[in-house]
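user: At home tonight, take the chain set out below, taking as long as you need, and be ready to discuss the fold:
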Amino acid sequence: MDSFFVEGARVWLRDKEQLLPATVSSCSHDDGTLVLTADYGEVVYVQQSELNRDKVFAMHPSSILGVEDMSSLGELHEAAIMHNLNLRYQKDNIYTNIGSILAAVNPYKLISGLYSPAVVDQYSKHHLGELPPHIFAVANECYRCLWKRHDSQCVLISGESGAGKTESTKLLLQFLSVMSQNSGGTPPSEKTTRVEQAIIQSSPIMEAFGNAKTVYNNNSSRFGKFIQLHFSQSGNIQGGCITDYLLEKNRVVRQNPGERNYHIFYSLLAGADRDLREFYFLSAGPGAYHYLSQSGCVKDSSLDDQHLYTSVMRWGQAFETRT
């Protein structure tokens, strides 16, 4: 029997078409039976006649300990990548590099201090790779490359529904706004500050008209968007635009069971005062309207429709004041 098959050894177990991380629970030198416990709870008995490199093999030390950059893994296969992400996720390390690519795992909870002003300041003073993986490291590298390469930069954020693309976009804009305000050692002009605020604070209104509850995500973006920022030679944000595309128009008239129409309709009914409701002939709650209740879901405990209405109106009033 191979020397690495000792009690407590970390191995890969091939189960049908997939590899599972497992631990050697015990091994019998008499009949050669190997008892493995997969990380997901399954107990597997492997006979001596079944032992071969394709069935069970040792886990590389880099996979046992986990790495910040998966390009340095000693074994590159799907199971090793997923296992490394899971190891870091269990320690609230939701960011992992893959070379110059950043992989983010949505923790579905708040992680204290992960995006604090102190963290923003820390990443603004270091190059990519000098600190642990973080979305601020990507944003900082993008900002630095504007001046280092004298060329436009692009950050592509992609992932499945609920992966955290919308929140990641907000964090990128937050970091770039801070860098803009601190650039050149001089305070930004009033016009520059207004531009930054308009871009960053546009999120509530974009989400209200373009996001909806789906079975996978309670705040799912049902459209794509391209955000373009223009920087001055001094490093300040001078202007920008948001282009939306591929809006899921059919959601307005039909939703799948358990899903909702766009947030704006529910927030309007929840937050508008009596005069505004009467002006638009809105005399009932969302359950009374077919296009808002046909899916059987008009309310979700994780969504505050009244608060969203307040945020949208606050943004709209602030925008009117600026213009």
